[in-house]
Structure prediction request, 212 residues.
Amino acid sequence: MGSIINGFPPGDPSVEPTINHMLNRYADLLTDWAVSTSSKMIEEVNHQDRKAWVLMTENMARSLREEIRTAPTGKVMQSLLAEQVTLIKSIPLDAAKRVHELTLQGIEDGTRANEIAKEIQRSGEVSESKAKTIARTEVSRTASTLTQARALSIGSEGYIWRTSGDSDVRHSHQEMNGKFVRWDSPPTLDKMTGHAGCFPNCRCYPEPVIPE
Prediction:
């Protein structure tokens, strides 16, 4: 995306429609790759989640283990895939929107033209940063969502919030550590609502509470 944007004079209003068109076309071209990449990630996370459940339930009744093994995760995985493809395709679309808005700023405020041109040239870096955030967040969110689906299938009402236990844990998430959270009542932290592992760059995870 940076190569596309920086191939044109930054801040030139006459080339902005071309950049916009190329980035939108790029978003369309990403579809098959996004489906393939997300599918591989979801299947790998699903495999790891299944292994974790095997260890967690090794001392439980065979019927319960079978119930967890056959939990209806198909629709959840399809939903995750659709959401992730949309997120991946949003990266060039957001870059196009950013270039458009910065170009308009340059037209409206000629005194900041050089500064705005530099910001346009940073669009590739901004897109890369967003891509990394999406990648980290979606792996964690996928794991939490699959864990939730399997837990709900056996009647679990909630989980214990666990953090990664290091100094990088956000204060609001540290305060959640060890607390019981109902699946049907995700907490709101830092003006965002979600379960452990579902926040941007979150490395927390849910420890399901299994019914007796």
Observations:
- Residues 2-154 form one domain.
- The chain has a mean pLDDT of 92.
- The CA atoms of residues 21 and 96 lie 8 Å apart.
- The longest strand covers residues 158-162.
